[in-house]
């Protein structure tokens, strides 16, 4: 449905109020994950561009519908003319130049065009739906991107804090080693080892801090606000489909990319029907009236009217047949593109599922490794204090613990993100979060115009090469 100017103005006002309120308030309070996603949906320019495109196509549908209405033409002209010919002995012909005017009105109502107008309306309806699914696709993708950068900011903050704690540990160790060296208990080698590990810890912290700043900048670019006061990312585990097959079945029904290309197929089929209409003549009811004076070299008043049926048919070589055959091939092209996207979505679902299962197992392993490294460091430290372990053993164990903690934080963050990615691949990310998609993501036009449905054969026949080939070639010019 096309929004009225007042409704659009009210919507824009509410969006600006939301954005301003969030900008003012989020610095003084927490910025939840839902807040970040809502801000992306309301302000991201990619979504706004997709919405504007959909609204523009709605006006193209209005233009297509207008061909059902009568066409009214008004023409007025004023001219000077002279009739010096000898072809007529009309008493009203003028021997001298005369100046006159004429007003013509013409009303034309198309009665028959081989359903060309109807097919064009259906094509524009499918284009509206395709544009709506593009809005939904952008909304789901950018919402997932908002989740990723939100999670990345928290992850980099945590690993940077681990790097600071690691640096503090090495400073404490260096202080103890220097004291032992000054007292003659430890040698220069131990002191140099401690200093070298301190430099490494400082360099690691610098790298982690730079990575955190880069992540914050990316958050600002994606979401539009600074990442201050973030909360922990909730796990969507309870909302995930139970199996990969269930996820695939959901994706085939709801993934916006698949739905977009299905609508593209519908638009191509409608355009093919429009081309088929060129085999039929057009039939118009025309009413013409003229009123004028002293026109075309004849003196006197012009006042006449006529009503009639006009049948038109155009011949021009093989142009019409070529147009029909071209559009048949365009349908085949769009159906092939739909199959390509169906395969890509299936790959995305399967990869996301496999990555999630791997991440779950890896996080469990890293959890146990970090626990063991912490216990080992404590044991080695006690043994070092009584001279049964070298300093190198202790420092290596601390480094292993630090890496295990960092890897564990990264793995836990990846595990949660992959769950959201799986929801996005299935096309149910926003519904799973209880967030309404943008209003312009509503695909209503094809059903509202009663357009023929688009077959979902690429899904049904994806394991049947011959069946798919027959489906792809099933459209023929009539």
TrEMBL record:
Q: What is its main location?
A: membrane
Q: Where in the cell is it found?
A: Cell outer membrane
Per UniProt, what is one Pfam family of this protein?
Answer: OEP
Alphabetized InterPro entries for the sequence: OMP_efflux (IPR003423), T1SS_OMP_TolC (IPR010130), TolC-like (IPR051906)
GO MF, one term, reads:
porin activity
Task: Report residue spans for region: Disordered.
Answer: 441-460
Signal peptide from the UniProt entry: 1-28
Superkingdom of the organism of origin: Bacteria
Q: What GO cellular-component annotations does this UniProt entry give?
A: cell outer membrane; efflux pump complex
Q: List, alphabetically, the SUPFAM superfamilies matched.
A: Outer membrane efflux proteins (OEP) (SSF56954)
Keywords for this protein: Cell outer membrane, Membrane, Signal, Transmembrane, Transmembrane beta strand, Transport
Similarity comment text for this entry: Belongs to the outer membrane factor (OMF) (TC 1.B.17) family.
Name the NCBIfam families for this protein: type_I_sec_TolC (TIGR01844)
Name under which the protein is recorded: Outer membrane protein, TolC family
This chain's source organism reads: Roseobacter litoralis (strain ATCC 49566 / DSM 6996 / JCM 21268 / NBRC 15278 / OCh 149)
């Amino acid at each position: 449905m096309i929004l009225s100017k007042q409704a659009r103005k009210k919507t824009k006002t509410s969006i600006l109020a939301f954005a301003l309120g969030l900008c003012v308030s989020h610095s003084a309070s927490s910025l939840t994950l839902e807040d970040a996603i809502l801000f992306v949906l309301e302000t991201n320019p990619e979504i706004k561009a997709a919405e504007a495109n959909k609204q523009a196509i709605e006006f193209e549908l209005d233009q297509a519908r207008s061909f059902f209405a009568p066409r009214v033409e008004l023409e007025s002209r004023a001219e000077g003319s002279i009739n010096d010919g000898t072809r007529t002995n009309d008493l009203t012909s003028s021997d001298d130049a005369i100046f006159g005017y004429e007003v013509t009105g013409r009303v034309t109502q198309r009665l028959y065009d081989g359903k060309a107008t109807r097919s064009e309306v259906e094509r524009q309806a499918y284009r509206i739906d395709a544009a709506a699914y593009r809005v939904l696709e952008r909304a789901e993708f950018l919402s997932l991107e908002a989740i990723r950068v939100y999670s990345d900011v928290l992850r980099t903050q945590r690993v940077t804090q681990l790097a600071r704690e690691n640096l503090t540990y090495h400073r404490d160790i260096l202080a103890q080693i220097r004291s032992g060296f000054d007292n003659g208990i430890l040698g220069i080698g131990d002191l140099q080892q401690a200093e070298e590990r301190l430099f490494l810890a400082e360099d690691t912290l610098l790298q982690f801090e730079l990575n955190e700043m880069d992540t914050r900048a990316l958050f600002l670019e994606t979401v539009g606000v600074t990442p201050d006061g973030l909360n922990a990312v909730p796990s969507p585990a309870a909302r995930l489909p139970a199996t990969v097959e269930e996820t695939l079945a959901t994706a085939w029904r709801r993934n916006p990319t698949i739905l977009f290309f299905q609508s593209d197929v519908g638009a191509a089929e409608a355009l093919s029907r429009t081309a088929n209409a060129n085999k039929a003549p057009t039939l118009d009811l025309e009413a013409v009236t003229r009123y004028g004076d002293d026109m075309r070299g004849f003196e006197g008043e012009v006042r006449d009217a006529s009503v009639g049926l006009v049948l038109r048919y155009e011949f021009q070589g093989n142009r019409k047949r070529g147009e029909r055959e071209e559009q048949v091939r365009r349908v085949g092209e769009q159906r092939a593109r739909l199959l390509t996207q169906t395969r890509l979505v299936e790959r995305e679902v399967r990869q996301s599922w496999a990555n999630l299962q791997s991440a779950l197992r890896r996080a469990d392993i890293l959890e146990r490794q970090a626990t063991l490294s912490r216990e080992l460091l404590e044991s080695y430290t006690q043994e070092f204090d009584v001279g049964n372990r070298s300093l190198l053993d202790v420092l290596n164990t601390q480094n292993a613990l630090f890496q295990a903690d960092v890897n564990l934080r990264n793995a836990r963050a990846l595990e949660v993100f992959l769950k959201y990615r799986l929801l996005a691949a299935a096309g149910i990310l926003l519904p799973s979060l209880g967030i309404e998609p943008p209003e312009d993501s509503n695909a209503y036009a094809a059903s509202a115009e009663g357009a023929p449905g688009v077959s979902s054969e690429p899904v049904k026949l994806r394991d049947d090469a011959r069946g798919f080939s027959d489906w792809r070639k099933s459209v023929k010019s009539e």
